Amino acid sequence: MNGSSSYTMAGNIVSLLFWVLVCGIIVYNLFIKKSKNRAAAALGEDLRRVEQAVRGLLPQDDQNAGIVYAHWEDVTHSGRTTRTTYYRYAAAFKGETLWVFPLQVDKKTHDVMAGNPWVLTPGKLGKVMVTLKDRNGMIRRVETWLADKQGDVIVKLYVDAENLNSTKYLPMNILQEDECAAFERFISPLAQKVAADNPGIDEMIAQKSAGGMGGVAVGLSVGGLVAGIFAPSFGVIVCLAGLIFAISGKRKGSPGSKALITSGVCMALSVAYLVFYYAVLFV
Length: 283
Known about the structure:
Elements: H1 2-43, H2 45-55, E1 66-78, E2 81-94, E3 97-105, E4 112-114, E5 118-120, E6 125-135, E7 138-148, E8 153-160, E9 162-163, E10 174-175, H3 177-197, H4 201-227, H5 232-251, H6 258-281
Antiparallel strand pairs: 1-2, 2-3, 3-4, 3-5, 6-7, 7-8, 9-10
Helix pairs in contact: 4-5, 4-6, 5-6
């Protein structure tokens, strides 16, 4: 009896220590660490490192350009696996010119190296999309998507008013509220000018997107037809998915009907084989 009580008490102590540890980690990450990082950001050292890395690569006449730190996370999904690729940038802006510098940041020392920039002007841009996020009337994030005259993406940027060291991939502590607001005042008019200069770009982008769906549709349909030889029911399901993609792409403006015809033929053959398979199976 005493042994059982001692065992229960020991278990309770271990459980209590575990939850104290968990709570301590949560409190540290939510409050203490964030407070330390915000204090470091207020000193402005990381932002100065970014500015110093970029100033030397700007033209002599554009040394007074505005500069902001930016980043972007590319999230891709494959089955149950999610992969995130992190990108860090500096964006310099003046007049109607935007320089976007890829950055290499040392995760421990926060030393910054800037690569050769994209130099983007209305003459090179076909589409600029801007999404703003604010809090209490203050801009907190400017999301920018820039594409060329063919509608192909050049770069995507998140410019945040506050950047705190959250992971080893996002190590910077930067407060740039005024700089973020200045960037919005630059990029929004630029987006309007590019839109006025390229009135047909949205249709071109929609057609490219639809064409991509057509390629997926053909791949699924052909793959489903082949898979159906070994698993007829599964083949029909995959072909149906391909047909749905083909129809959706056509509705969105995909030029030509090859994807739709191919998907329809594969679907018909797959269903015919399924019927034949079960007819033979149950004879």
